Amino acid sequence: MHKINTDFTSLYNQYSRLVYNVALNYLQNTEDAEEVTQDVFVKLYKALPQFKAESSLKTWIYRITINSCHDFIKQKNSKKYFFVFGTKSNNTVEIENSTNFEHPGILLENKEHSEILFSVINQLAENQKTAFILSKLDGLSNPEISEIMQVSISSVESLIFRAKSNLKEKLALKFKEYRKN
Amino acid sequence: MEQDQWIEMVLNSSNGIQKVTPDEQLFSKIMNTINEKPEVRIRTMWFAAASILLFFTLNILLINYSTSKQERQFSALTQELDKDNQLYQ
């Protein structure tokens, strides 16, 4: 028990920033990111004794974090759908109240533009969003992303390409609004 | 042209993004959650046990009730038949 706790503490020290930042980029809300980080480490604590080194620990943690973020978004959307009788967005990953998200790690001079970027990232399909976040915000290489997402490297390239094309299309629409203001 | 430049600026606005450190209290919150978990399990276990017990008790009561009702109906029927089959009345 003591050894598990010691291992767990060092695991937390090593990976808490990684988990928190992925969750923050995904959910665009500091409280939600903390909740998911908490959930991920509780899962890791339980699953750690059964961990088989078939993939690297880092890849495994990335997968758990991304899956937890997806679950969190689905749960949040289903709660919203349950209580509010209205039309639901076709995109299941769209999050409300995140359009004005100011990422605390963004450089001050980029704050305004990054708010727009995060709002359009949320409109991407789930796998495009994952690939884009891991590549652009987390700075992972395509082989690393392919291992995390369990798809081929060419699929990752295609996902990132499509994500960028879609973002450009959506930003073109935003530009018109931007010009009006 | 202006639009393309603006789009590129927005897309590149995440360049130089810094990693953020979570709240210092988060680790203790996680440890509290981990330590709380077994209590929830025990409570759930007791709830499940009580539900099973209630289920079996209700079943036994229902079976007892239906068998005694059948017995009563059967004895009433035999009494009736006994009366009807009296040849020397």
TrEMBL record, chain A:
InterPro entries: RNA_pol_sigma-70-like (IPR039425), RNA_pol_sigma-70_dom (IPR014284), RNA_pol_sigma70_r2 (IPR007627), RNA_pol_sigma70_r4_t2 (IPR013249), RNA_pol_sigma_r2 (IPR013325), RNA_pol_sigma_r3/r4-like (IPR013324), WH-like_DNA-bd_sf (IPR036388). GO terms for biological process: DNA-templated transcription initiation. Keywords: Sigma factor, Transcription, Transcription regulation. NCBIfam families: sigma70-ECF. GO terms for molecular function: DNA binding; sigma factor activity. Residues 11-77 form the RNA polymerase sigma-70 region domain. Transmembrane segments: none annotated. It comes from Flavobacterium amnicola. It comes from the Bacteria. This is RNA polymerase sigma factor. Belongs to the sigma-70 factor family. ECF subfamily. Residues 117-166 form the RNA polymerase sigma factor 70 region 4 type domain.
From TrEMBL, chain B:
Keywords: Membrane, Transmembrane, Transmembrane helix. It comes from the Bacteria. The chain crosses the membrane at residues 45-65. This is Uncharacterized protein. It comes from Flavobacterium amnicola.
